[in-house]
Amino acid sequence: MRSTIERHHSYRSCPRCEQDVLPSQRFCRKCAYWLARPKQDELRTIDAQPGSGKSWLYDTWLVLRSFQASLSVLVVGIVMGVGAMLLLVIVIREVSPTWLPIGPMARQRACYANNRLIRDAIEVYCQEHRFTRELASDPAHVLWKAGYLIAPPQCPAKGNRYEYFFKATAGSGPYGLMCVGSDPHGLAE
Length: 189
Hints:
Elements: H1 56-99, H2 102-128, H3 133-137, H4 139-146, E1 161-165, E2 176-180, E3 186-187
Antiparallel strand pairs: 1-2, 2-3
């Protein structure tokens, strides 16, 4: 028959902090020392006989299994990287069509702003001077030389210039200050 209080150790006081302990306690309540620790004398070592260890085949098998595990991690990483790159390409292809016209639209807006600036300067110039053929052919340069512009505005597209066109007949097309050249922007809106 077993007693109701089980003895786990033979200590009366904790060897570390000298606190009184009961035989039923496994740990000291003050310093948490392990009182019910098994004695080292009870454990015996097993001396291996020569040749009784694991075989070289088992060691080779462990090396191969660890290589296989590291290789599978590498393969999974490569597959995930390729998948992420494909996803990135798909996202860029879906989003980029909205970004593509940003450059040409910015150049067109800059050209229209220059056009409006030249038109305003022409209005001020025409209050004091007559409208001439030279002003119609190269308004930016004439207005700059006359002091109505600080610098002659240029279209952001290379090779373009500003000219003033007159309407000759009722159905002859657009007239006014236009951007003309290799990549013309036309009349400002």
